[in-house]
Amino acid sequence: MKKVLLIYNPNAGNGVIKTHLDEIINSFNNAGVFIVPYRLGGVMDLDTVLAELPTDEFDKIAVAGGDGTINLIVSAMLRHDIRIPLAVFPTGTANDLAGQLGIPFSIEGMVSTALSSDSIKVDVGKAGDKYFVNVLAIGMLVDVSQRTDPLIKNTLGIGAYYLRTLAEVPFARANKVRIISDECTLEEDVSAVLVMNGRDAGGFKSVAPLSDIGDGLLDVLVVRKLILPVMLPALLTVLMGNHLGDKRFEYFRTSKLRIEPVGKKIINTDVDGEKGDPLPLDVEILPGRLTISKSSYF
User: Fold this and answer.
1) Domain architecture of the chain: domains with CATH
2) What is the pLDDT of residue 15?
3) CB-CB contact of 89 with 81 (8 Å)
4) What's the CA gap between 67 and 202, in Å, rounded?
5) Is the dihedral of CA 87, 204, 189, 218 positive or negative?
6) Nearest to 298 by CA among 48, 166, 160, 101
7) What whole-number distance in Å separates Cα of residue 141 and Cα of residue 112?
8) CA 283 to CA 127: how far, in whole Å?
9) pLDDT beneath 70: ranges in the chain
């Protein structure tokens, strides 16, 4: 009998996973798959669970939650060199990864994808000691996900991120950084830097319109220093996907880069909506490091 470890975040999104947990377990059982549920936030530490996981007994790990939850699981899998396939139940707010992979948002579609024998290899980004599936962020978008009230996220969904971003605009300050790569080297004041593995970030679509999550490259979007009156129009340009070729931005693709602060200011980062390490950071791509169950609709 096949065996799957289901790691779920009961607080992700509007808590939909708790409502459908029995239905999901029953669907797996009916398909001849034994499912072992693990609830995040309990007494048992996730790292301990995965460090002691008998991987030869499990065919797959399923994760139910948003992009931050996926980051948590993927990071733990990489730390412990776990290479069995991952299935994604997108029950969070933005669900950027699932959207890019065409994973359905219905419970029936999630279960069907998780049970599928088809899979796709995707890249993983590494920044210092942290990993990211979607994005490493520096500047004005840092902490947007972390500082968005969970109640508002559950009520407004992705709209909560847009509102939080608008609220942050008047307080945004530029940071002087140095970016070094084979493709592009620059040193200047920037409002933001987004190092993208995927295409979307925080519900903002096509931030990296040329990105392919399995191409072995990172897409880097540098938002040059913007004064307040033009900051909102610039964000709208990104939202509409019209920022390539715009002089307010620098966009390039690379397999590795270094980002350094210029001066003594501490510049923090964000990885997939979670707290990252401060600059300086060496950032690289790990090609095809993760295997994810592919939707039959993809």
Assistant:
1) 2-123 (3.40.50.10330), 130-287 (2.60.200.40)
2) 82
3) no
4) 9
5) positive
6) 101
7) 35
8) 4
9) 42-44, 140-172, 202-203, 227-232, 236, 239-240, 295-298
pLDDT in tens, 20-52: 999 999 999 999 999 999 999 866 689 999 999
Retrieve residue 35's tokens.
């499912």
For residue 261, what is the DSSP state? E
Q: Where are the beta strands (DSSP E) in the chain?
A: 2-8, 33-39, 60-65, 86-90, 119-127, 130-132, 135-139, 175-180, 185-196, 218-224, 249-254, 256-261, 269-271, 274-275, 281-293
pLDDT tens, position by position, 151-206: 444 444 444 444 455 455 555 678 999 999 999 999 999 988 999 999 887 667 77
Rounded to the nearest 10 degrees, what angle do helices 107-115 and 16-30 cross at?
40
Give CA–CA dist 263/276, Å, rounded. Answer: 20
Residues 225 and 188: beta-carbon distance below 8 Å: yes
- Residue 15 — left, alpha, or beta (φ > 0 → left; ψ -120 to 50 → alpha)? left
**Torsion on CA atoms 241, 253, 295, 20, rounded to nearest 10:** -70
